[in-house]
Design brief:
The chain is α/β, with parallel strands linked by helices and about 350 residues long. The chain folds into two domains: about 1-110, Enolase-like, N-terminal domain (Enolase-like, domain 1, 2-Layer Sandwich), CATH 3.30.390; about 115-325, Enolase-like C-terminal domain (TIM Barrel), CATH 3.20.20. About 40% of the residues lie in helices and about 25% in strands. It has 13 helices and 13 strands. It has helices spanning about 55-70, 75-85, 90-110, 115, 135-145, 160-170, 185-195, 210-220, 235-240, 250-255, 260-270, 285-295, 305, and strands at about 1-20, 20-35, 40-45, 130, 150-155, 175-180, 200-205, 225-230, 245-250, 275-280, 300, 315-320, 320-325. A hairpin with a 2-residue loop joins strand 2 and strand 3 (about 40-45). Helix 2 packs antiparallel against helix 3. The protein is globular and about 55 Å long. Bound molecules: magnesium ion (MG). Magnesium ion (MG) binds near residues 180, 204, 205, 229 and 249.
Length: about 350
């Protein structure tokens, strides 16, 4: 195989704020794996609170490029195991390479991944559209700029109930909220019933990621379903979230790719937990991989390309939140070869 990569800093349409901070650009790594003249692509955006900047991904990749290339590629699951051992401390990089392996595999088989997995795309949930933290006026304006059936509202700040109440005055759309670990147990217990009254359907990561004791209490008392995000990173975390959360929000980048994400979905189902896959502001490369998994999910948050002002590939479309699939094999995207 031959490996090439490019790094990008994709500008957001609006500065993107969550309870952890603001960003104006999304740094991201795109890898290209070429095998028998066919090219597969994968992506890993850098997220500051996971401490793996794009430079670190590039540094690790450069150091072991020869080993990445010399693997005798036959199927992506075997490739993931190899990569997982090659880069044990860099799940983001493993994700990008695993995704490229799956794209390549689909293209070699001339099928999209959802076809290889026998999934029915009519079952894919509608994606939400994220409203980052801002002044209330700006949040209302951002929402009105993008009429959408489901909004995911970032909360975890002092006046968050006021924010959600103001947005509710302007739409009947479904609301979800994501506190990004921004509340204490007391705040969560007080705010969640108010959010339910405002028509919020679920709450993502209310408490700090290691506050399992608090989550146990909240899980017993919450009037809304609770989903783990920061508390559910790797495969082993699914088990830990059981009886503390109603569902998990898997992200391909943090768990290290499509291969472990599929196992996490299966395990969550065995534990009767709900499953969502979320994006980390990927371009259409990373979100195309989420689209392939979408029929397996209860909820999906794959609005990355809608929040960014530039894209790297074409292929993933949305019609009022509904995912539009293309006939392109693999991930379903078209991209200019490197
Ligand atoms: Mg989240």
């Amino acid at each position: 195989m031959k490996l090439k990569y490019k790094t990008y800093s994709l500008p957001f349409k609006h500065p993107f704020t969550i309870s952890k901070g603001t960003k104006t650009h999304q740094p991201t790594l795109i890898v290209e794996l070429e095998f028998m003249g066919i090219r597969g692509y994968g992506e890993a955006p850098a997220i500051s609170y996971y401490n793996i900047p794009v430079e670190k991904m590039v540094e690790d990749l450069e150091r072991k490029k020869i080993f990445v290339e010399k693997f005798a590629f036959s199927d992506p699951e075997r490739y993931w195991h190899y990569l997982h051992h090659l880069f044990p401390a860099n799940p983001f990089l493993v994700c990008a390479l695993d995704m490229a392996g799956w794209d390549l595999f689909g293209k070699l088989k001339r099928k999209q991944l959802h076809e290889l997995w026998n999934l029915d795309t009519t079952k894919s949930p509608v994606t939400d559209f994220t409203i980052g933290i801002d002044t209330i006026d700006n949040m209302v304006a951002k929402m009105q700029e993008k009429p959408w059936p489901i909004y995911k509202i970032k909360v975890g700040v002092e006046n968050d109930i006021e924010m959600v109440a103001a947005l509710r005055k302007h739409t009947d759309a479904i609301f979800r909220v994501d506190a990004n670990a921004g509340w204490t147990l007391e705040q969560a217990l007080q705010k969640i019933p108010l959010l339910k009254q405002l028509g919020v359907e679920m709450v993502e990561q209310p408490l700090a990621k290691d506050n399992w004791e608090g989550m146990k209490i909240l899980f017993e008392q919450s009037v809304l379903p609770l989903y783990a995000d920061e508390a559910c990173v790797f495969e082993a975390d699914v088990e830990k979230c059981h009886q503390h959360f109603n569902g998990i929000n898997i992200k391909l980048t943090k768990c290290s790719g499509i291969t472990p994400a599929r196992r996490m979905i299966s395990r969550a189902r065995e534990l009767n937990m709900e499953v969502m896959v979320g994006c980390m502001n990927e371009s259409s490369v990373g979100t195309a991989a989420i689209a392939q998994l979408a029929p397996l999910l209860d909820k999906v948050d794959m609005d990355g390309p809608l929040l960014l002002n530039e894209d790297i590939a074409t292929g993933v479309g949305f019609e009022n939140g509904k995912i539009i699939y293309t006939p392109t094999p693999g991930l379903g995207i078209t991209i200019e070869p490197f």
